[in-house]
Amino acid sequence: MYKHILIPSDGSELSQKAVAHGIELAAALDARVTALTVTIPYHSLELDPAPVADIPGAADFVREYLHGRPKLYLEAVETAARVKGVTCETLQIEHDHPYVAIIETAQAKGCDLIVMASHGRSGLSAIVLGSETVKVLTHTKIPVLVHRS
Question: Helix or strand or coil: residue 1?
Answer without folding.
Answer: coil
